[in-house]
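Design a sequence for this backbone.
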């Protein structure tokens, strides 16, 4: 079966995200290559983001660590005549969270003109590493430099967790956001807010004038990833979705959607 959800699958925002991120970049590139004029091409560009994660390779959000109390500790004592006297309390032994710095590979899609290889449009799929810690700072710095150039920037924030892209004005509440900054229309930014319950939109991909915009069908790209990899076999739909916690309304909808697909989830806790 495909994903039980009509739009973005919230269960992807966990251990499978890195794999899905790469597949989605490939599907977007393939979709655009099929409709691009001969004077353009769509290339995959890989870079690495410095991120801090736990040593557990399955963990994306190291918010909790396991602490173990030592079964026995030596009874440290000093002479009775000492000014400090005998230690009356023994310490317990806890474990520091194991945090390591990793370089996370991230794929972007670059639309370039064939003649001079100039970058025309950059499509960024935000990763968890783009939205927290040093990775968020690196992404915002890179973004500021891109906005100074005559390059269209299309950003796909398909993650509920992490920092949102800073904009003037308040974003309407939504689970996901698509943002388009056209090189010839700055500082304005077009924003598509997408609720958890909605399908992903088809959005424009601008080229050099006078060439017309292309249309990127994001839902078709996500569906193609499921058709190829069958993430529905890998995701544990009986558990709660990865953080952040759902609202009560979202929880009810997720549980009803899963039950409609024949999946009986364990009760999902809400804040």
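Sequence:
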């Amino acid at each position: 079966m495909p994903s039980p959800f009509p739009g973005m699958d919230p269960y992807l925002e966990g251990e499978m995200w890195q794999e899905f991120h790469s597949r989605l970049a490939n599907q977007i590139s393939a979709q655009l290559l099929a409709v691009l004029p001969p004077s353009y091409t769509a290339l995959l560009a890989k870079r690495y983001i410095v991120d801090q994660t736990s040593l557990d390779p399955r963990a994306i959000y190291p918010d909790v660590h396991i602490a173990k109390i030592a079964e026995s500790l030596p009874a440290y004592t000093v002479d009775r005549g000492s000014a400090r006297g005998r230690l009356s309390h023994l310490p317990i032994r806890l474990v520091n969270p194991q945090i390591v710095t990793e370089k996370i590979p991230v794929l972007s899609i670059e639309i370039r003109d064939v003649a001079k290889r100039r970058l025309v449009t950059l499509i960024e799929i935000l990763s968890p590493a783009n939205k927290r810690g040093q990775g968020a700072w690196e992404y915002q710095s890179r973004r500021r430099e891109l906005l100074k150039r005559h390059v269209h920037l299309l950003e796909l924030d398909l993650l509920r967790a992490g920092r949102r892209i800073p904009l003037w004005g308040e974003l309407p509440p939504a689970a996901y956001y698509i943002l388009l900054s056209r090189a010839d229309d700055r500082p304005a930014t077009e924003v598509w807010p997408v609720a958890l319950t909605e399908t992903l939109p088809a959005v424009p991909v601008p080229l050099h004038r006078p060439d017309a915009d292309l249309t990127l069908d994001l839902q078709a790209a996500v569906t193609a990833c499921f058709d190829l990899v069958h993430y529905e076999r890998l995701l544990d739909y009986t558990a709660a979705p990865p953080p952040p916690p759902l609202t009560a309304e979202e929880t009810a909808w997720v549980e009803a959607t899963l039950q409609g697909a024949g999946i009986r989830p364990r009760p999902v806790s809400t804040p």
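Confidence is low (pLDDT under 50) at residues 54-80.
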